[in-house]
């Protein structure tokens, strides 16, 4: 997912150029990319960087959102939990890519998987400090990635925005740099939400 990277760039005050691409443009671009998947990042010296985790961590290393000491550990623990959450999302939430082949059986399977997904989300709650952040900045890369996962996936399944994470979600959404991205006012423009509502 590319959106956590945009949030890390914006909250970290990094200058960047964004290039959201349409399906049509992507089908032409895909064969020219190293691995045939997005996101991709081009550094000022022309180097192409692949893998969303590598790009997100690189931005975080530059801005401080990677964290140090216990904040680094917490953010990385979140990155691990988020990877497991993403695996659950992969088969249970329609995305811009899978929507056209989504059917009622998949929706039914997703509803059946909900208790397991909610049990995973409940694991985050024990690490909250003061109810609304996990690290001292509250904007570590792990937190930004979690915010995007929940904000995006809850568009398909509202239950994903759990009561336990409500204060966290509200706080991050209110950060001006985050609100700017959500409002479509960043260089990224209108948000191409990855998860979409059930058809
Ligand atoms: N491990 C990769 C996975 C990237 C990935 O699966 N990208 C998907 C969308 S999120 C993609 O580009 N799909 C388009 C395609 O396969 O043509 C990463 O985290 O960057």
* Gross CATH architecture of the largest domain: Up-down Bundle
Question: What is the name of the CATH topology of the largest domain?
Answer: Glutathione S-transferase Yfyf (Class Pi), Chain A, domain 2
Helix content: 40-55%
Major beta-sheet overview: 2 strands, antiparallel
Strand order of the largest sheet: 1-2
Fold and architecture overview:
The protein is mainly alpha-helical. It has 2 domains: 3-63, Glutaredoxin; 69-175, Glutathione S-transferase Yfyf (Class Pi), Chain A, domain 2 (Up-down Bundle), CATH 1.20.1050. Helix content is 52%, strand content 3%. The protein has 8 helices and 2 strands. It has helices at residues 3-11, 23-29, 52-63, 69-92, 104-125, 141-153, 166-174, 176-182, and strands spanning 40-42, 48-50. The chain has a two-stranded antiparallel ribbon with strand order 1-2. A hairpin with a 5-residue loop joins strand 1 (40-42) and strand 2 (48-50). Helix 1 (3-11) packs antiparallel against helix 8. The chain is globular. The two termini are 21 Å apart. The model has no long low-confidence stretch (mean pLDDT 95). Residues 1, 30, 37-39, 51-53, 97 line the site of glutathione (GSH).
């Amino acid at each position: 997912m590319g959106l956590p990277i945009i949030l890390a760039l914006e909250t970290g005050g990094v200058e960047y150029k964004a290039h959201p691409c349409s399906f049509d443009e992507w089908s032409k671009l895909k064969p020219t990319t190293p691995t045939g998947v997005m996101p991709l990042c081009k550094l000022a010296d022309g180097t192409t960087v692949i893998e969303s985790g590598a790009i997100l961590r690189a931005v975080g290393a530059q801005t401080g959102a990677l964290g140090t000491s216990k904040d680094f550990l917490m953010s990385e623990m979140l990155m691990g939990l988020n990877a497991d959450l993403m695996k659950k999302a992969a088969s249970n939430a329609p995305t811009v890519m899978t929507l056209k082949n989504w059917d009622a059986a998949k929706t039914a399977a997703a509803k059946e998987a909900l208790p397991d997904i909610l049990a995973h989300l409940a694991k985050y709650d024990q690490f909250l400090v003061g109810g609304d952040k996990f690290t001292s900045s509250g904007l570590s890369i792990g937190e930004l990635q979690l915010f995007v996962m929940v904000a995006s996936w809850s568009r398909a399944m509202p239950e994903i925005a759990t009561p336990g994470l409500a204060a966290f979600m509200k706080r991050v959404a209110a950060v001006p740099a985050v609100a700017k991205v959500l409002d479509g006012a960043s260089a990224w423009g209108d948000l191409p939400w990855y998860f979409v509502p059930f058809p």
